[in-house]
Amino acid sequence: MIATLPRSSEPSAAHRFLLAKTAQTLRPEFSALRHTNAHFIIRLHGNILGRHIAGG
Description:
By secondary structure, the chain is an all-alpha fold. It has one helix spanning about 15-55.
């Protein structure tokens, strides 16, 4: 099925290169941000659950 797709629907070499460079540049910031957000969300949910269980 994929082999029958017209060539024009594929990203160009330049587009692929730009996407790769962008992903490479942003990956450290994104992973750090995701890590921070995960910790924040876990802590927030822990506080809410803790209060709920304690009856506060």
